[in-house]
Amino acid sequence: MAHGPRRNSHKTVAGLSDWQKNKVVRYIDENIDGCIRVQELGDQVRLSASRFSKGFKVSFGRSPYDYVLSRRVDAAKYLISSTDEPLSQIAQACGLSDQAHLSKVFKRLVGVTPLKWRRLSAGKCTTQHTPASWRRLGSADVHASANA
């Protein structure tokens, strides 16, 4: 016995609003050197981790984890080309566990090793689209506190 037209059981997931996207991107860039959890990102925009993850994927076309990893690599690219810091310190400054982790992720996402990237980008200015929060990562103060 039918009670009218059958409704589609699949719900369309809405993406994040502009203010939510902007706030999350800013939070990620400002905290790139630390642990960033999906729950924390959801809290920033008043969503559960599950709802946030779904909305994030709709808005950015990839998972929060993949996006954060790509931003860590972008920060590493900036530091590699703008400082002479050892790759082990750059890895830590970008929230990656160690130089081996940096090298593995960097090669997978960029296509070359961090050392080759440093050689290829020597003398090129990369600060044009760099978040201001990343500039502090290359400062002597950050590295001095990391060694303390």
Automatic annotation (TrEMBL):
SMART domains reported for this sequence: HTH_ARAC (SM00342)
PROSITE patterns: HTH_ARAC_FAMILY_1, HTH_ARAC_FAMILY_2
Organism: Rhizobium pisi
Keyword Transcription regulation: yes
Domain HTH araC/xylS-type intervals: 22-120
GO molecular function, one term: DNA-binding transcription factor activity
Name of this chain's protein: AraC family transcriptional regulator
Keyword flag Mitochondrion: no
Upper lineage: Bacteria, Pseudomonadati, Pseudomonadota, Alphaproteobacteria, Hyphomicrobiales
Pfam entry (one): HTH_18
Keywords carried by this UniProt record: DNA-binding, Transcription, Transcription regulation
